[in-house]
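Input record (one chain):
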Amino acid sequence: MRVVAAGLAALALTGLSVYAQSAEQLDPLLKILVENKVITEQQAEAVQAQYDQQKAQKKAQSQQEIQQTVRETVKSQPSGVPSALKGLHVGGTFYLSYQNGNQYSGTPGETTSYNRFALKRGYLDVTDDITPWFTGRITTDVYQNSAQDWQPRIKYLYGSFHWNGNSALSQPYVNFGQVVIPWLDWDEAVNGYRLQDEMFLERNGILNSADDGVLVGSNFGGLMPENYRKNVDGAYAGRYGSWQFGVYNGNGYHAAEKNQNKVLEARISLRPFPVAVPGLQFTVFGVNGKGNVAKVAGKNLPDWTVFDGMISYENHYFTGQAEYFSGKGNQAGSALNPDGSARKQKGYSFFANVRFPEDTKWGVIGRYDHFDPNPDGGSTLVDDVQKTSIFGVSYRFVGQNMALLDYQVKQHTAPNIPNEKRVQLTLQVKF
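The corresponding structure, as predicted from the sequence alone:
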């Protein structure tokens, strides 16, 4: 009997618990109706269950509507980069310097000193891959005009047609507009220290780096391995070398064209041992045209010819260049003999760069230029062989951004021109 009583008591308690839970779940209005015996408890629970079911259905329907709205909104938005910005690339290169030194004043035996901050270069470069085979490019260059104001000018402005090519001539291109010349862009890519000053030919007034015209070129063979392109040199990285040929006005990118002559320029670089000695290249460059001077009745335009040869070598820790130049006249048409004909000029240059330690952040550079503007004599005004020696230490703190401290001495063989010396600290900003 005790067992039966205990069982009945447990059932009663269970029923009360279920009722309490059920009562707590009822709507307050239903509870009042049950307590006042307007409806039974079973009827209240049935109404509550029907209400809860309808509420759950409305909630699910509402969530589905929200999800559908979100999907439609996301679908209507452009994915990733906006279409107007796809293929657009913006970059910049700045050379910001402090210089302290002296230079020839123009008065025999005298120099003037300087102590200044200088903006040596300010490029803003924008390219747009309009299609997979056509790209547009514009590059502005900051310079100081005759009034010493800083102003922008156009350095590059062209359209480029390019395609894959074949196994013999890979990645060919045709650039039309104000384009690079075949030499300096290649030379600067190998040297890597344009922030110190101009390359050998430009420093001595033979040419500058861009002109109005058309340029064609390609690689010989495919590309060098990715490891070489990433850690050594990714520019003009054809497996067996590269070539370029251009036809130009001949005035350069910051002078007016003064005649109708067109100048031919070409470069061929050969990499004979892409596996055994991948960084070794033999390069020749030539120019054939006339100097940029106005035509005078009864006189021929002065010749402008260049032959330049270079042996270069690059690896992760070292870059070396040996260059020889011979030619007549110059781009400006100002290198003349007393009779108005183009004057012969020649010279050579050596450059070396050692990078260390393992991360190659630190570097040491050395360079020597020997330029003879008048090897045949005949004019004492230009009978001055110039010998320039450069030594520097660099620190590359991130990517291509680095600082260079260098010391430069320019010696003159002309007895009335004193030596020129300069200490320079340059920050290269590149993005």
